[in-house]
Amino acid sequence: DSAQTQAAGAESQTETQTGSTQAQPSPTAADEAQGEGKTTATQTASRLLPLWIAAALLTVGVLPVRRRVILRARVKKTHGSDANRNAVALWDYFQALSRRYPVALPEVCERLAKKAAFSQHRLTQEEVQTLLTAARNAAEQVQEGLNAWGRFVFRFLYVLDWLDSVDP
Question: Residue 25's CB: how many other CB atoms inside 10 A?
Answer without folding.
Answer: 7
